[in-house]
Amino acid sequence: MPVIAFANPKGGAGKTTTALLLATELAARGAAVTVIDADPERWISQWAKLPGKPESIRIVADVTEDTVVDAIETAEGEAQFVIVDLEGTASLMVSNTIGMADLVVIPIQGSSMDAKGGAKTLRLIRNQEKMSRRKIAHAVVLTRTGAAVTTRALRNVAEQLRAGGIDIFATAIVERAAYRDLFDYGGTLASLNPSQVSNLDKAVENAREFAGEVVARLKAAAAERQAA
Questions:
Q1: Cβ proximity of 175 and 199 under 8 Å
Q2: I need a surface site. Which of 88, 165, 175, 211 has the fewest CB within 10 A?
Q3: Angstrom distance (rounded) from CA 77 to CA 211
C-alpha cells in the first residue's frame, strides 16, 4: 500500500496539519489509514485522544530511528494508505522513511526559511534515489496561504521552486480556522459545526481537492514504475 511521507526540517511549515487533513479525507472516502506519528510533539497522537477520531484511522506513535522501517512495513500490510508525519529535522529516521516512500510531500510556507528547509528535504530525496536506484515521487505543497491574497514572499518562493524544476501541488493549503479546530476539539472537518466555524465549507473543499491530487499523484507514480 502507498506510503506518503510529510517532511520538512523547518518546524511550523504546516506539515502535521496537512498530514492530518489527508488522513481524515482518505478515511472519509472509506479507506483504512495508518498514521505513523514520528513528530516528537505528537500532535496527531494528541488529536486521536479527542472525541471523533474515525475508526478507520489507526495511529502508531513512539517510533524511533531503529523501528520506523519495521513500523512502515507492518502498516503497509494493514492499511490502504500509510501516512508518516516526520520530525522537523534532517535525521536518519527521515532519510529511511523517504527511502520507503511512494510520495514525499514537502509543506512550505511563503518564506525563505521554509524554502531552505524544503531544499534540505530535496537533497535527502536525491540521496535516497541514488542509494535505492529508483525515482521517488515528490512535490511541494504551499501551506497557510491567504484565501484571497497571494503575498509577495509566497510568489517569490513559488517562482524560485519552479525555476529550480521543483514540482508544486496545484492545490495549496489555505489558512483556515477549521484546521486549527481539529487539534482543539478533535474529529474531522465533516464533524465540525458550520455555525461555529467560519468558512467551513471552503475548508472542506480545500482538503478534498488536496486529497484528490495526492491520490492522482500516487496513481501516476505507480503507472510510471510499471512502465519502467
A1: no
A2: 165
A3: 22
Instruction: Express each pLDDT in 42-97 by its tens digit.
Output: 999 999 999 999 999 999 998 999 999 999 999 999 999 999 999 877 688 999 99
Q: How far apart are CA 69 and CA 84, in angstroms?
A: 11
Q: What's the pTM value of the predicted model, to 2 decimals?
A: 0.92
Q: 10: which strand partners? A: none
First-to-final CA distance of the chain: 19
Q: Are 58 and 35 in contact (CB under 8 A)?
A: yes
- Nearest CA-CA partner of 3 in 129, 86, 97: 97
User: Do 215 and 103 touch, CB atoms closer than 8 A?
Assistant: no
Is the CB of residue 175 less than 8 Å from the CB of residue 144?
yes
Would you mind telling me the total number of residues written for the chain in this entry? 228
